[in-house]
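Exam revision sheet. Question 4 asks you to relate a sequence to its structure. Input first:
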Amino acid sequence: MTRRRLLVTALGVVLAAGLTAGRAPAQAPAPAPKDAKGAPAVRPPATLPPLPEGLTPEERRNIEVFRRASSSVVFITKSAVRRDLFTMDVQQIPKGTGSGFVWDRQGHVVTNFHVIQDGNAFSVTLADQSEWDATIVGVAPEKDLAVLNIKAPADKLVPLTLGTSRSLLVGQRVLAVGNPFGLDHSLTVGVVSALGRELRSPTGRRIRDVIQTDAAINPGNSGGPLPASCRSSSRAAARSSRASA
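Answer key, structure tokens:
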């Protein structure tokens, strides 16, 4: 996949009118999920403790969706290069953090443009706490989207199972998953508040067909996915936190 094609595909992930169609998990027992290229996705570690008794069906769905999606969510750090006026030494100054998600096993990571804006150097921390230097593949400031690449082994990468927005309904439950501190993942729960909204990108251009949700987007969660929890299946769609705030 060329850089241009990847970026165009990533653009389609966030917009409500054109989310990239993925293979959603079927009713249990579910087949092995597929990544964006159709290859079997790496499943989360099997060492997770079993769910305790007494949970409601809704709680179980939320926990299962969170466990599945969090394996793909990453922590992104950006730094700016500065030269000391007195010593002339070059230093990297931390500029901010955010979230993103693994797109494929080639190491592509999708996030919001404002997460990496004004940065000169970037690192990505995966769910297993391994940290990797990242390079920019492409950006679309007018859509608040960016694609990074890391040189991590394929067996460390868990691509997000993508869904489609065509069947989303106002009132459907959604979960916002992020990795704001690089130590653990976070989850907030809400519903689809509206469809077809508009907002301003960092460049001032309008982004159309945005999914609005009332799920809280905490600082550092920008760029993470927005899975939808259904009765018998789950779908995951990328989100722009500006779009869903």
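Marking note for examiners. Residues 16-33+55-72+159-244 form a domain with the Thrombin, subunit H fold (CATH 2.40.10.10).
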